[in-house]
Automatic annotation (TrEMBL):
InterPro entries: Glyco_trans_2-like, Glycosyltransf_2, Nucleotide-diphossugar_trans. The keyword Translocase does not apply. This is Glycosyltransferase 2-like domain-containing protein. Pfam families: Glycos_transf_2. The chain crosses the membrane at residues 248-269, 275-293, 305-328. Keywords: Membrane, Transmembrane, Transmembrane helix. It comes from the Bacteria.
């Protein structure tokens, strides 16, 4: 496919105000190896300064619109591109991002493309460990590896749920579905992907070369705050959208929490269960240590290897608790802004 057949792309970034992340990342968009694109930014807290201007960038200031889904919908209406490329302010694209993802849109049945968001090269130790949790088999249950790493063996596979930090959607399909639904934040992208598959009967493709580099939330508090939001949204979706959110992997952390709490009680009531409980806890601890070893084997950084062990444990614990809370959340209740 030649450049002449590539559609215009509108890159969409929701943000509170022009921040340091944006100032560092916007020059990266000028390095994109793609002939026709625009960058649209929505701010609501502080009007941009006259000096805050970049080539191909349009900034929309709209006070009172604070939720990311609303901002993305507003920018989508302003977009002149046939493809909407969603990304966050704390991420920047690889030069080949649009080129690699854009190839898929020559297929009419493809409505969207998702690519990995790799840990930002400038992240500090605490942020890198947050990324290592998502990138470990134990930390993510194996389900998140292609989201945070370039998994070439998955190239061309269909996916049914992808994060809007690196999601490209055909504008006509986005509009047909009515855009993002704010009440489902931070799972509005999950709902959009579900609707693409179910309502439009179209595909979402995985493209490992369509990479963005993403700042991770540092362990422990910022990381766990994000994990908790994901857990609560997934628990809620397991109840109302079983098509993509009722997978056993999403329930395992909650079963782990319940087992951890109820196991000793069951062991007192029925002593043989105490042996099984201790055996399971020992096996889990061994898996944690093995995960730390795998990190050290790959990076040769002892601090990362040691920190990833409690980080994975805390991730499982908090996700499991918040997943249960999500199951108990009324369907109509929104999860708040960012």
């Amino acid at each position: 496919m030649t450049y002449m057949t590539y559609p215009k792309v509108s890159i969409i970034i929701p943000v509170r105000q022009i921040n340091q992340n944006l100032k560092e990342h916007l020059p990266k968009y000028q390095e994109l190896d793609y002939p026709d694109f625009e960058v649209l930014i929505h701010v609501d807290q502080k009007k941009p300064e006259p000096s805050e201007q970049w080539p191909k960038v349009k900034i929309i200031y709209q006070p009172g619109v604070s939720a990311p889904p609303q901002k993305r919908n507003t920018l989508a209406k302003e977009a002149r591109g046939k493809i909407l490329a969603f990304i966050d302010d704390d991420a920047y694209p690889d030069p080949n991002w649009l080129t690699e993802a854009g190839r898929w849109f020559s297929e009419e049945k493809v409505a969207a493309v998702g690519g990995p968001n790799i840990t930002h090269p400038q992240d500090n130790l605490w942020q890198r460990v947050g990324g290592l949790v998502w990138g470990s088999w134990l930390g993510s249950g194996g389900s998140g590896l292609n989201r945070v790493e370039k998994m070439g063996k998955y190239k061309g596979r269909e996916i049914n749920d992808w994060a809007s930090v690196n999601l490209l959607v055909r504008k006509s399909d986005f509009e047909e579905l009515g855009g993002f639904i704010n009440q489902y934040y931070p799972g509005e992208d999950t709902k959009l992907c579900l609707d693409i598959n179910q309502k439009l009967n179209k595909k979402i493709m995985y493209e490992p070369e369509a990479v963005v580099y993403h700042h991770r939330r540092a362990i422990f508090i910022p990381h766990l705050k994000q994990v908790g939001a994901y857990g609560r949204h997934r628990g809620r979706f397991a109840k109302i959208f079983p098509q993509t959110s009722r997978k056993i992997g999403y329930f395992l952390p909650s079963l782990f929490v319940l087992g951890l709490c109820l196991g000793p009680i069951a062991g007192v009531v029925f002593p043989p269960l105490m042996f099984a409980y201790l055996l399971c806890v020992t096996a889990y601890c061994c898996l944690l240590i093995y995960s730390g070893y795998q990190v050290y084997k790959k990076s040769r950084r002892l601090a990362e290897a040691l920190l990833v062990i409690p980080a994975i444990f805390a991730t499982h614990l908090w996700y499991g608790i918040m997943f249960i809370k999500g199951l108990l959340t009324p369907e109509y209740e929104g999860l708040g802004n960012y």
